[in-house]
Amino acid sequence: MVKRYGYFEALKGINLNIDEKEIFALVGPNGAGKTTTFKIISTLLLPTMGQVKVFGYDTVNESDKVRKIISYLPEEVGVYKNITGYEYLDLIASIYFGNSSEYSKALELGIEVANLGSRIYDKMKNYSKGMKKRIQLARVLMTKPKLAILDEPTTGLDFEYSYEIRKIILEYNKKFNITFLVSSHNLQEVETISSKIAIIKGGLIMEYGSIDDLLEKYQVKNIEELYIKIIKGS
Amino acid sequence: MRKLIKKEILDLIRDPRIILPFIFAPIIFLVLGGIASQSVQSTVSEIVEPSLIKVNIIYEEKIPQDFINYLQNVSEKEKVIIYFTQKEKDISNILKETDYDVYILIPKGFFEKIERKETGEIYTFSKTTEFRLGSITGIKEIRVVRIIENYIKEKYINSTEILNFISRPLNYYSLVYLPSKNLLVSSQSLSSLFFGIFIASIIILSLGAIIMQISSTSTAIENEYKTLEILLLLPISRFKIFLAKLIGTFIVSMIGLSLFLIGFVFYLYLLFFSVTQPTQNLPFISIAIDPFSLALLIASFVISLLFMASLGVIIGALSNDVRLANTLIGPVFILLFFPAFYIIILTPSSPIKDILMSIPFLQTLIFSKEILLTNFKITHLIYLINSLLIILVLIYIIGRIFSLETLLNLQNKISRRFKKRI
After folding, report:
1. Do B10 and A74 touch (CB under 8 A)?
2. Does A42 touch chain B (CB under 8 A)?
């Protein structure tokens, strides 16, 4: 997959395969191409060259079908300041499920993931950064997507919120068989939740595989050492 | 889509930055109207019930005794107190040192001219320290001049009956015929109507600007907070997303605009109707507008507001933040303002008129100008259909470009162009 913005080549040709039900991490320095990759997979951007298939559906020609089975949490996403968390989740549930019985189930699940208590009825402008992230994570998971793409889901959050989000990711992966594609600068977090990773730099995949295999291949003790070795070595 | 529209409405209507100006509009207009009406009221009440005025008659030569007697006799009836000052220094010094409502300078040779039955010349002065509505009307001066005129008339015409006749030999009524409506209207009421059209045009211009501002801000905020990305990821067509935004913005704008209009009506009421009798010909407006024309005007107005909302949404979508959206609104509105101003001030002729008549917003300005003078024909309906087609094409185009890929490309181009200029 190649992506160019004018003369700038954000992705120089990457090739990835993510298995169903796994938690896959894409790690790399800032500007490596992680967000561009996520936006292409989630149908927001078109690849300049190449093809992306999500559960067999082409992200360009079958984008409608793809959008029905994926959810995306951008890194820096705001909220509608003047509507409540509940109204927001209600909107998402009704867009996905209309008036069917699935609608109320999705809404319940969203409220459960958000875990904001009575604050769910507050306008979102009064939410802390962590609460906003939780409501967005609830939006992503309440529809039980086949693929959830999370771009740095714990960035800027305190330890408690980060821990809860990691817990939710692991729980929903097991409970609903949701495939996760995650990016993070917190390598310990990646090690905790992911089984496979890809290290990306300058629009190219430097390494790709299971964490255990890569640790063995590079003869390092942990993922931090692995990352430094690959990034510096390149 | 209903839920998306509801989201748009709630998000906008709960935003104090959007709704407060609308709530304050009636209050601001009320204050403005109060201030303006105070000025106009003082002028109008001066005409209806003249106040007591102090007059200083400055003379350069001896004044005949019969003139003094005449002024003293009528002073109570005409509500004037007359003082006399011989001009021994410069007039500006007299004005500076004394305080009268009206000064009349009777130059040398005035009474000799009157004796020779030649037209005399006098000068009136008044003092003002500020410019305000109704401050320089000359009403008080005219009252004193009329008294002096009557002195001269009475000097030569002994019969009061003839004096009254000479003072006002004719009563005239000026009427204007409107061929297309087969109506005769007084020119006074026609002037009022033209003023009304002018005001209506200003309202349409203001409303257009407001609705464009709201819709562009609402869309630009989505870009700034990246919530547009989330919207575009939903399993709903991008056209519907755009349409929901357009309809939501339009509904909120209409709510806000109704508050704006209430304020404006307050303003007009305070300014005109509280201080003057309603024009006797006002019922003419409702009688003269046929239902077909009125329906076309209303349809044209709605299309115009949708057009402005669409322009606002596209400006907002192409701006990666609210600041850029506000910067872009200026040039776009100026592009519409110039032809609008041309339409308000002048009457465009074919083929320019035919082109302008098909463009939403400009069409409404022409319609609102024409509706009082003509009954709309089938050609007006064609113009309306043209404008409807334009707005549908515009909505379709915006719906097509409402994808992140296209928007990002366009946003980058616009941002680069503006950064270069800055």
Report:
1. no
2. yes
Residues with pLDDT less than 70, chain B: 21, 25-26, 29-30, 32-48, 129-137, 159, 168-169, 171-174, 178, 180-197, 261, 264-289, 403-405, 412, 415-422
Q: What is the pLDDT of residues A174-186, one digit of tens each?
A: 999 999 999 988 8
- Give the Cα separation of B8 and B227 in Å (integer): 12
Please enumerate in sequence order all residues whose Cβ is within 8 A of that of B309, keeping only pairs 6 or more positions apart, or say none: B211, B212, B214, B215, B246, B249, B250, B253
Nearest to B236 among A44, A76, A95 (CB): A95
pLDDT of residue B237: 82
Residue A41 has pLDDT above 90, yes or no: yes
A contacts of B236 (beta carbons < 8 Å): 95
Element at A163 (helix H, strand E): helix A159-176
Q: Which phi and psi angles does B177 have, rounded to 5°?
A: -95, 130
Q: Which residue type, as a one-letter code, is found at position A231?
A: I
Mutation choice for A interface testing from B4, B7, B221 by most A CBs within 10 A? B7
Q: How far is CA B244 from CA B125, B252, B284, B321, B361, in A?
A: 65, 12, 41, 20, 22
Percentage of chain A with pLDDT > 90? 41
What tokens does B140 get? 């008080």
- Using a CB-CB distance cutoff of 8 angstroms, which residues of chain A are in contact with residue B12? 82
Closest chain A residue to the Cα of B231, Cα to Cα? A92
ipTM of this complex prediction, to 2 decimal places: 0.87
CA distance B246 to A152: 33
Please compute the mean of the pLDDT values over residues A218-225 and round it to a whole number: 86
- The C-alpha of A133 sits at a distance from chain B's nearest C-alpha, in angstroms, of 13
Distance from CA of B239 to the nearest CA of A (A): 13
CB count in 10 Å sphere of residue B260: 23
Evaluate whether the domain defined by A2-77+144-233 bears CATH number 3.40.50.300. yes
CA distance A19 to A202: 24
Q: How far is A90 from chain B (nearest CA, A)?
A: 9
Neighbours of B351 (CB within 10 A): 8
B96-109 as b/e: b if 16+ CB within 10 A: eeeebbbbbbbeee
List chain B domain ranges.
2-34+178-421, 49-167
pLDDT of residue B354: 83
Q: Which of A67, A78, A123 sits opposite B233 (nearest CB)?
A: A67
Rounded to whole angstroms, how far apart are CA atoms B397 and B48? 60
Structural fold of domain B49-167: abc type-2 transporter like fold (3.40.1710)
Of A51-60, A88-97, A212-221, the one with minimum mean pLDDT is: A212-221
Q: What is the mean pLDDT of residues A205-217?
A: 88
Question: Which pLDDT score, from 0 to 100, does residue B322 have?
Answer: 82
Q: Left if phi > 0, otherwise alpha if psi is -120 to 50, otherwise beta: which for A203?
A: left
Burial class (CB in 10 A: 0-12, 13-18, 19+), B84: middle
